[in-house]
Amino acid sequence: MKTIEAGTLWTSTVERLRAEIGDENTELWLKPVDALTLEDGVLTLKVPNKFFSDGIKERYQKRLISLLRDEAGYEIGLDFRVERDLTRVLPPSDPVPVASPQSDFPLSELNPRYTFDSFVIGESNRLARATAESISKSPGTQYNPYVIYGDVGLGKTHLMHAIGNSVRRHHPRARVLYTTSEHFVNEFITAVQNNQIEAFRARYRSLDCLLIDDIQFLIAKDRSEQEFFHTFNALFDSRKQIVVSSDRSPKEMSPLEKRLVSRLEWGFVADIKPPDLETRIAILRKKAAHEDYVVPDDIILFIASSVKSNVRALEGCLTRLKAFQAMTGEQLSIDHARDILKESMELDDSSPVRVETIQRVVALKYSVDVKDLKGHQRTVSISTPRQVAMYLSCVMTELSSTDIGRAFGGKDHSTVLHARKKIEKMVAADPFFLEIINKLQSDIKAAER
Q: What is the mean pLDDT of residues 169-186?
């Protein structure tokens, strides 16, 4: 049996595996791992946390053992030693503060109205709701992190508050914080400016349950995202619950920060879709009952049939009808409801359109062929309308970036995300371009009618 040093064996094995799994996966999973010892046919590896040991076991252990046998000439097993000292995992300038047991800080108020009982269950949200309730009873033990994603106004924030309220009810001493990614970024900036970064870290890393809304706005925010990344690691390694919401799945987020996106994917991901007609009716009835407001069934059905994509818009319609009746004292009729809610119905013009319609309208606007939008030419005269069409497909259809890429001649989902971000910047910077986009959207909706 030949003698071989642990570090040398590990390095050579990783380089052989790199050829199979690529640089990206190697840097993500294997670069943070150190070989400690090789004794009695067992190679002991030091990993930063349980994320890495679980991930390597699931993805690469079988292949690693085979390559290790080839390199060493005999059977070698793997053992993992989790690095518990987080101050050695994070950069020296980024220590994990230890909060005093007596220290306290104001936590954001959870909305008491947002509970599991007030959340209407339908096929579109059943899994997300069931998982959320399970987490609230035993936070940090399973489904961690928990990612809820879906479009605006479908109940993500309601579920997050419900989790927080339930955790506090089941665990009265638990430190629970609900916040938005925008507030997290602003707090971090203020802490840096006021030289209070240690207090900021103590605030977040001593929590038992962190609920952070709209995580997509934190992606690619440089230092703020890095700070959240380390906060995430600290909480996860302490078996504390992390819940985040987003308007898109982790796979569709910006690829600029792979470490954070990969951690979100390791948890449990659940989506919430627009509610079906029966669920919309149930939502309206529950809200009306909660406010002691009697609404005829025909008006409930009229609203539920007209407003299809947004729970907030549904509830807003009911609020407007209630206000009208309180001011006038008149008995509501369908004609009243149709007249009062005319603007709201028009605003709910967000039903998805077909990507083929978008391609046809954009091609006509820019005087190109639809086949050019699906092709691979990179001239500005083709690439710009192609990116515009991809952007409009992202905001006007229910397709994922992967499906949109497929509709544009098999483009990668990252190409679609790049197009979306580029057009968003152009829209924000150029009011004339914004007018072009708005006109295209109107033309597309008209073409669908």
A: 88
Please write the tens of the pLDDT for every residue from 260-293: 777 787 788 898 888 888 888 888 888 888 878 8
Q: Is the pLDDT of residue 106 over 80?
A: no
pLDDT tier, 103 (very low <50, low <70, confident <90, very high otherwise):
very low
- d(C-alpha 107, C-alpha 117), whole Å: 23
CB of 77 closer than 8 Å to CB of 34: no
pTM recorded for the entire structure: 0.54
CB 173 within 8 A of CB 271: no
In this prediction, residues 342-361 reach a mean pLDDT of 71
